Fold these 2 entries.
Entry 1:
Amino acid sequence: MSAPGAAAAGGSGRSGATADWGGFEDNMQGGGSAVIDMENMDDTSGSSFEDMGEMHQRMKEEEEEEEEGEAGAAEEEDGEFLGMKGLRGQLGRQVADQMWQVGKRQASRAFSLYANIDILRPYFDVEPVQVRARLLESMIPVKMINFPQKIAGELYGPLMLVLTLVAILLHGMKTSDTIIREGTLMGTAIGTCFGYWLGVSSFIYFLAYLCNAQITMVQMLSLLGYGLFGHCITLFVTYNIHFHSLFYIFWLGVGGLSTLRMVAVLVSRTVGHTQRLILCGTLAALHMLFLLYLHFAYHKVVEGILDTLEGPNMPPFQRVARDIPVVSNAVLNTTAKAIALTL
Amino acid sequence: FAGLADVSISEDIPVEGEITVPVGSHSPDEDYSTLDEPVKDTIMRDLKAVGKKFVHVMYPKKSSALLRDWDLWGPLVLCVSLALMLQGGSADSKDDGGPQFAEVFVIIWFGAVVITLNSKLLGGTISFFQSLCVLGYCVLPLTVAMLVCRLVLLAGSGTVSFIIRLIVVIAMFAWSTLASTAFLADSQPPNRKALVVYPIFLFYFVISWMILTFTPQ
């Protein structure tokens, strides 16, 4: 760094002047007063980085002029003159340096405050046993709705369930040969699942705020996340065994159970009939409709609508049973048929 | 500011100030020394590092070389080759080629980031890029599986080839998961290993699924 060098050069003009910002010693020799003559400073000195280059350029030009002039007698004068200029340059550089340091400190502080993932650390403090227990509990509706039920504010289980749902959706979309025109298959799956989890949680949290329900955002995220367990099971089964009646049984049974659990927990935390009705009705409707949407949106749909232009003998909208992979699906179908027949 | 060093000073004026040589002044010299070497040396050095890490993945021992000098070249190369090999598969039209390439990228990098964040939040001691590095390198067995699948599909696409592909993909998936678990799960407290292993399992399962359901045109 040339700052020490410049300080040394600046110090030549007035001995005892320090390189510290904000402290100028009084014993300035060589024609200068203790007070810096501010009217010599132009507007750009020490104010910004861009002007540093300009100042440096000017100093260089002045040095070159001085070198061309007399060397000996004008040495002292040059020293002084350069001292003033050197001081100004040093001042400017230090101000810019200080501003840079302060800015950097502020930015790193802000970054460590907001981008600190340690904020989320308490929500991931779980044991595998606890996760398993909560998964099973999410299918069991509670009976006691007069007493506020405890909801664990945990985000690991819900996050894993959302990712599992994304994986299952991807599998369903691939086997149904869904063609996404703009965007990727994976982007759609991720967007759908995360959008549902975060969006519906926020919406229900907002409604809960309006209806005076006692629930925090993390608890709502956790509740809805665990409610997706039923969705995962249903979709996993029905994407592989393709029977509409089986899907409706699962929709009502499994989906209904997990919805009932969420509704019961919310009811236990809300007072007043109207509020309970609004909150739980909305949640139940959204949850069940989401499962319905996930199943039907990714059926294998022969692209008849677009093909009618080229193939007039193709029926416009047709559902075709999936046959990928051939072996396992046939086995599963016959097994399911056999079970259905025996029941 | 280097021009100021040429300032001439009169001898009878004492020069004051601090002469401290900042530590960083050595690094320009080092940079110059690696800048001057031939390009072949630079590339070979990086390639050797990547190759060494590939060997570590294929034979997962308890070594820390993969973790210590992490780099993301290997994962990038693997990601690109896997995405290229997955091109031109499934349905019909020309606009399926694009999304599949981006799809593989999104899955691999988004999945790796999520797993890393998850393991950090669960109290892991591994850093962000080290974890990304390990997860990326452990995609190698699956890339090999993809290669084998493509070769098998060249021969035919009946039930036999499906069974062969299934076995190969399952084996490579298990290898990937075990390899990355060997590196990553050690940084966790012992009773929480299952919590870290599950997302890794899911991640490689999704990639394996994409490989298995690949049908060429």
Note: Residues 63-88+98-213 of chain B form one domain.
Entry 2:
Amino acid sequence: MGEFKVHRVRFFDYMPSAIRAMAFNSHTERLALVRADGALEIFNFADHYFQEKVIPGQDGRAVEALCWVGQRLFSAGLNGEITEYDLENLRPRYTVEAYGGPIWTIGSNKQGTLLMVGCEDGTVKMFEILKERIQFQRNLERQKGRIVSLSWHPSGTLIAAGMMDMIRIFNAETGHATHRMLVERGVGASKSREVVVWSVAFLSDYTIISGDSAGKVQIWDGLTGTLVRTHLVTKWDVLCLSVSQDESSLIAGTSEGTVVQFQFISSTVDQQEEEWVRTRTFKNHSHDVRALAHTETAVVSGGMDTQLVVRPLLDKVEKNTQESAMRKIALPHRSLVCCAKKAGLLLFQFPDHLEVWRVGESDGHGKPGDSLPVKRKPEKLIQLKGKGGDHIYSSALSPCGEWLAYSTVSSVRLYRLQYNNISITKVSKLPKDLCLGHQLCFSSDSTKLFASSRHSSVIVVALNQLECKYLHTLKPKSGSRQPVHLLCTSEDGKWLATANTDCEIHVYDLHKRKLHCTVPIYSSCPTAIAIHPTTSHLVVVHADQQIFEYSLVQKEYTEWSRKLQKQGLHSLWLERDTPVTHVTFSLKNPAHIILHDMFMFCIIDQSLPLPESKTLLYNQMTLRSLPEQERIRHSHAFKICKNFKHVMCVSLLEDHSLVVAAEPVLHYLSEVSKRAQTTLSQFAGQYIHVMGL
Amino acid sequence: MAALYEGYTLCGLVPGQTLTNSGIQGIEAERDSDHVVVTDSTRSVTLYKVSDQKPLSSWTVKQGQTLTCPAVYNSQTEEYVVVSDNKVIRIWKDEDILLDKAFKATVSSDVWRVHCLPGGEPVVLFQRGAVRLLDSLLSAPQQPIEEVLAQEEAIRWSTNIVADSQQFVIFTTEQKGDSFLYLHRLNPNTLQRYRLEREEPGLSPLSFSASYRDKHICLLYLYPNGHVYQSVVSVRGLGGDEGAQALPLPRSLLLGLPVGEGLLEAASAQLLDEAHVAVVGVPHPSAGAGKDFLCIWNTNFQTLQAGKEMAGKIYGQLWTFSNKLFIPHGKTLSVIPYECPKSSLASALGKLNNGFINISVNVIIYGFFSLLTQRTNRKTQSAPSLTVDQVLDFTKTAPVEEVQREVEGLLSRADIQDLQPLVGQLASMLVSRSLADPAFYTPSTLAQLVHTQSLCHSVCPDLVLLALERRDFFLCQLCLQFFPDIPEAVTCACLKAFISMPDTEAEKLSLEPDSVSFMETLIARERAPVGLQNGFSSTSTDQDCSDALGGGGRVVIKTGEEDKEKSSTPPEPICPVGLHKAVLLNEVLLTAYSDTFLLPHLKDLSSQHVVLFLQYLQFLYLKYSQDASPQMHGLRSPSLTQIMDWVCMVLDAHFTVLVMTPEAKGLLVNLHSFVKSQVRLVSELGKIEGSLQELNKMKVKKDVGQYSIEIIELF
């Protein structure tokens, strides 16, 4: 196949933010997760844990708690506001001030009619959930000391509230506190420190489970207000709890990075009576576990070390299947790197700023495995700070490198760049229609900007030296209300393809300015799409790792795609647990498709036979050891290179050299550790601030 | 290792008028391990669920009346029994709310206590020493009550115990500074009176605690001077001469607790199990003179196992139920869970030599215990079964061959339940007979007994010395191998005997085959061409010591004969002692010891023997250095650290002598060169470490590079 010159880029020091809270919706199988920078992410657990939606955060917005009410998602935070998210347009729908100081927790009743929040000033506030908004209803009896955690009894009559040094039970109808359960403080030096009840859970048999800062998980009788059992699980804090839907299992996350499982079983074989017994301990995190979700089959945990871990419970899933494998989701399932092929520039997207780099140069030649002398070092040309505190949702760099666009939840910004004498100019007059851009993309000749807008529509804007003009809006016929998450154009400027989270892929004819076709809908969400520059075939990779090639001219799947489907993909290919996030093509060899996930990049040579189920999929090492003549007999279409870890981008420049942006793992881990410490002090600072010290 | 866990508060205390009173009269177990009945010193009885720290119910007598004994729970009838105003017995049930409406009976004499054990019947002990079952008392409440105690005699403490389905009431009294123990057996009633040995004048016991085990009642008592004594009384011997004369009660000192300044005032000791005692109100040995500590001591090893400071005043009261200690202190009654797992000698002492055999420490505990019982109760000692008795008697008189046959037969019978005490008795018997009668000796029987691994040195302290005396070195070897508790003095005596033994005699011995085969391979082994351990190579040190080698020991041969040969091949070390002697010496090297105790005994060795021993140790060291892993066989062999420890100890013990002895010069120089080579090795390692670190840095630098252009090839 040949040699490649690879620009190995490790200076994209992107770091995900710590996970702060999560909520699992068992009806839709969606996990909502919020990070320390306020970014919200939605994962579809029914579709290979694909991260289908992201709403960027905002400076100074610290979300403490999340809550699903049906399909609606609410959050509350230390800024004292309750926010409902618009999951179709990927932005906060509205924000309501609770007027109770910082909010520590949020919850709803089972019926989904009321929302309650626990506030710093000691009040539990009830809000009625109306169709379009929420309305303040009343306060429960005000307590001395903050309300840190809340749980509603399934019947709706009682509410348990975790506070400092105690748990209160409220009668939800009268609003009066009926019981006060004192929680013992830690021993030794921490005896003088108040114990924080970080989490409570109210079960339908009136058992209350609490987790506190003294490291205890306690089981209480909610009817009598008495302590039934204490489990000391850690020296430090029990930060979060989650109970399974059938209330037979309970998990507790600690600040030691462990998750402890309890099950409601009889402790000895002959004993009839069931009790909460500590059963398993999982250690998948290096730092605090701040958020937990107990799905039917798995323990989902996240925290300071930024990774989302899905740990299937082996008694609930079939062993040694893909379902029983543990998943760690460390990086976003979308591309944060944009490569301007013609100019050899890279755009890196961070939550609050953008960086433009020029890759280095080398004129040397070398053997495979060599590092070439770098003649010109890579240089950072521009660092652009986001405006207004809103974090960046999407960004794009034109292939010529002269235009840069980015979008936030509230606006789209366009800049013009010049490199001979580096300068950046904001294009001040943008068309009014260009206010929302979930995805941005430039045409290959850099004359048009495409921005996906509400209800899967795409706004087309013409760019030239003098002005920026709205041309038209492309709309799908399906009437889907979901946002577009993938957008790409063809090299010849004729086609534009969009994919949305309803799994629809629409292709527009840009010359005729109308919808050309809709690719047959496949059950799994597309994770990467691209249009071949010469054949105009659309290549789509889905979350379940399936690959399709669709001919835009014939409006049907290509021969190769049919062959692939007929034969089936190799089982090892299907077992990979990170999605392909980018597809590109080689101009030199039209039969090559280049794609990558987090752990490898792959060049699919369509001219070669597909790997049979028994052949070795990862065969590069074997091929290397074989003599030249024999290689051809053993090679197959999937050429997989696993030299790189944490691959964020693989792109082909115009000079046919590859750019691989990958993170050194060591660097990444040490960064987590360092950041955990600074966050810890920030966290402390923030809390001290909140307490008014 | 016993441990005290984090405690919790059961209830607050309302101290009486005097500060010395905790306000709690007594705590008794209720229906299960989680319920207790607490009686305060005035008017109320409260039932607590311990794990919930919650009172379940409470009963009070009228104003003006006082409770004079702690309430007890009769689990058979589920009733509570208490005495108010000394004479009124009250009985009520859980559902009764008012105590005044409950059953009452007035008796004719003052009651001291009502006792009731789970499953037992309540027993009433009167202040004048009479004992009645509650049922029989209530059938005629006004029945006359006899006076048992003398005029000025008063009860200090009492308890009851069920032993082999017989109920005992045990109480102690005091009369003019003398203390007495009364053992009252019920059905049939017998009473035995014992006189406690006097402690220093004016001191009477502060607290008592009793327990029953192995057919003996064990009484533990604490004196204000910190001495904890144990007295053991056999249950069987009771009932002979009833109440006639107070028998002297033998005692043994279990612990001498530190008391700090002055005497103890409010302190208490409670037996937790056969090896552990909980003590409250005694200073912690490493925490100054404050007496507000709760400690658990191991009585077998006299070691402190766990300690905890209790806030507030200590009242010298302590109760224990089902692994929980109840202790009133300051203004609270705390519950402290504890654990006393079966300990090993190693964990108790802290030091473990790796030659230690892992016999359960039961052996030793039994050893202590049997010695105690022998010492205190020879009279009441009785053999477990008749046939064993016969054998024991038999061994006292029968000729050697028959004894051997009988013991063999006895040991081969698998049905003997408690082999351990039997083996101990047999061994002691045989040893004492052998010591008394020079013509009598049964080497094979003794070896067989040692092989059962049920023996230890403490059970039969004369065995090793007897073996040495009879020059039965095989038995010595077995003892060294199987006894975990050989004192350092005996170890040293063995060493001395072994080293002074002529090789010709040693070679005639038949020894344990494993250890012999290890030595054989070690001596016969071809020197391995590579793989020097610890960096010692004689080649590198030859230049340093070649001149000294000539004068010295027999270790290094071919001294400087041929320079070429020397620089290419180091001399082959030759074992300075014979094969069997070496095997025996290895056994000594493998025993557990403590430096401080061994050192004084080592000084007894003559300089000649010291030099020989050092030469042997040096030989072992050289062999070990040449071969990377001579210990791989799984045979019994000393480790390199053990060898080095012994070298150091012998040098320490005889330093001046060795310096003055001319023969030792070469040896010392050689040992010196060991040290030198070790120092050199360490410095070389230091250099390597530096370079490795440098390498590491370089590698990291390369890895952390932010950017590179590489060529990769795909096939």
Note: The first strand of chain A starts at residue 2 and ends at 9.
